[in-house]
Amino acid sequence: MIGPVILVVGARPNFMKIAPIYAELEKRKINQILLHTGQHYDDNMSKIFFDDLGMPQPDIYLGIGSGSHAYQTAKVMVEFEKVCQEHKPSMVVVVGDVNSTVACSMVCAKERIPCAHVEAGLRSFDRDMPEEINRLVTDAIADYLLTPSPDGDYNLRNEGVSENRIVRVGNVMIDSLFNNIDKSKTSLIHQDLNVTIGEYGVLTLHRPSNVDDKTAFIQIISALEKIGERITIVFPLHPRTKNRAEEFGLTERLEQIPNIVITGPAGYLDFISLMAGAKLILTDSGGLQEESTALGIPCLTLRENTERPVTVTEGTNTIVGNNTEVIINAAMDVLDTGGKSGRIPELWDGKTALRIADLIERIIE
Q1: Other C-beta atoms within 10 Å of 247: how many?
Q2: What is the rounded CA–CA span in Å between residue 102 and residue 88?
């Protein structure tokens, strides 16, 4: 009897990547186990699983919780090894670049369980980012490296990865986006926040390089103060950013940015609706660079690098770092001229999960 395919999620961005794969395997009646490590847990998790993404409750919840990188990685390995020994999976699918991704791939390597890494080959070339270490290690040991774009293939070949491990499948985040864009039109988020479609920007900010560094944080706030004079800014405030703002005494200044609308974390459908109606996106998130490119919305990435360069070379993304003047100038260009236009990269067609499911079927059979 063929063992189940285990699909691993560990943090909120993973849900959007696993959902289309889960749905496609379900259609094909492939035995699967949805495992949530609990690396990140918030009250929105159930809403994302049940309502927004149409997924069931996870079959297995490890409840790892927060902690240092070492603690999380080690705890996931210990608990996931027990799961593998009990269920004897025919294959494990990990996604993205969180601690759960690298931990589960290491267990698979030691237990000799075939492991596929979805979103393989992405590189920022910045080893100060914990995610970069996770990507490098996962890609070194996973059996099948499923890349979203040509730069992923190129990076892996440069690292000496054999050709038979590299499979370009496209971007599964875009599957979730396209699958839910119509459903998101029922969202009342614009009404709730009293913003007009096409007349606001969306901001997300959470990376340590931006919010753990007081100087960088102030530079970004200074830019937002100027941009806010021209356009409403909707800002779903990340818990980390909120804590650092309080620690640095910047909360009042943040709240006094002109025309800023600070909200709690938004549900997936509400956030898609917000993104799709925005004139401009400012972010230090990876996924938003991709989604804004798919939606054709100018994106300013508040980082010095990106592991998704195709969003810059082909898409609507511009890297602006955290320099006040650079951010202001780029934002004003968007507001004055409509900003950078781009195209949707090859295989970002909403059919990535089909290609992944085809591959999984071939492997397990």
Answers
A1: 12
A2: 19
Q: CA–CA separation, 318 vs 300, rounded Å? A: 5
Contact 211, 240 (CB under 8 A): yes
Q: How far apart are CA 191 and CA 211, in angstroms?
A: 30
Q: Which two tokens stand for residue 324?
A: 């006040």
pLDDT digit of tens for each residue in the chain (365 aa)? 789 999 999 988 899 999 999 999 999 999 999 999 987 766 666 677 777 888 898 999 999 888 899 999 999 999 999 999 999 999 999 999 999 999 999 999 999 999 999 999 999 999 999 999 999 999 999 999 999 999 999 999 999 999 999 999 999 999 999 999 999 999 999 999 999 999 999 999 999 999 999 999 999 999 999 999 999 999 999 989 999 999 999 999 999 999 999 998 888 999 999 999 999 999 999 999 999 999 999 999 999 999 999 999 999 999 999 999 999 999 999 999 999 989 999 999 999 999 999 999 999 98
- Which helix (H) or strand (E) segment is 273 a member of? helix 268-276
Pick the closest to residue 287 from 302, 308, 259, 263 (CA basis). Answer: 308
Question: Which is catalytic among the residues 36, 40, 117, 206?
Answer: 206
- Nearest-CA neighbor of 37 among 5, 15, 68, 4? 15
How many residues are present in the chain? 365
Does residue 209 sit in helix, strand or coil?
Answer: helix
Residue 238 catalytic? no
